Amino acid sequence: MNTTEKVVLVTGASSGIGKATAALLAGKGWKVYAAARRVEAMRELAGLGVVALAMDVTEERQRREAVEEILRREGRIDALVNNAGYGSYGALEDVSDEEARRQFDVNVFGLMALTRLVLPSMRSQGRGRIVNVGSVGGRLVATPMGGWYHATKFALEALSDSLRLEVRPFGIEVVLIEPGGVATEWSGIAGRGLLVASGTGAYAKAAKDMADGFEAIGRGKGPVTLAAPEVIAKVIAHALETGRPKNRYAAPCHAKIILFLHWLLPDRCFDAMIMKQLASLGDPGDKCRCSFTCRKRRGQTL
Fold first, then answer.
1. What 3-state DSSP class applies to 61?
2. pLDDT score of 28
């Protein structure tokens, strides 16, 4: 093994931010192990020297075997990028207990279980870095229809803060990345799940409008411009390579703006701003179409 190479495990590397991060780090000279359920989707990374591993973060055996293989081949793990996750959308009233638990299993419990497996080796070598990919929707910002998803990302904020304080004495750093809108498969998955959970019943109109908005955003036609996954990958690479990382990095620019607005505005004003933005998702040409915020229908001033 080239002792100058740093070894990193990146989860959720079959697409989006994870795949872009694995490619970028490989180009920077890291020894990259990329983990995901869809191994076939990582084939092109092999040409960059990335080693693909089959791993569902909710499966104990797969987590353990992946970490053991890396340690057997490399002798150490210098960094872990916890990127695997998905967005489960639907009205809180509609989402089943089973789906809510799965959202936590993937986004929180699976992530922390994998982290536990890498900590002993990092502690023994006296150094290491863990980067958790959260969301701007996990820090002060939550939207309707995304309660369970936001709950997992809020939880990750607290877990990352506690873990950082616990492991810093051992030379291990913990960094949280808070992406805003990114052009990945996320919006399509969230939109489809939203319709499954709330496509009928009391929230059907709102769910349909929001799902249409997710689809439009995914096609680059919505009111929000999505950042390329490579933008977040560069932030992750910086968090891994800088000598003294920040506790948190929000990116791209619109993520920083929304966090600033939440700090600046009273809660009611911020809520109104979020709801107005959601209204524009349903039909950018006619905000009255969306059932989220249609005050105009009730004769009120927007």
1. helix
2. 97
Would residue 298 count as lying in a domain? Answer: no
How do beta strands 172-179 and 31-36 pair? Answer: unpaired
Residue 207 lies in a domain: no
Which residues, including other chains, have CB under 8 Å from residue 218's CB and lie 6 or more apart? 183, 187, 188, 191, 226
Q: How far apart are CA 113 and CA 47, in angstroms?
A: 30
Q: Tokens for 128? A: 């290491």
pLDDT score of 222: 57
Question: CB–CB of 239/10 below 8 Å?
Answer: no
* pTM of the model as a whole: 0.86
The catalytic site residues sit at 149
pLDDT number for residue 291 = 44
Domain-embedded: residue 35: yes
- Residue 3's pLDDT band, with cuts at 50, 70 and 90, is very low
The parent domain of residue 56 ranges over: 7-186+226-258
Q: What CATH number is attached to the domain comprising 31? A: 3.40.50.720
- Percent of the chain's residues with pLDDT above 90: 66
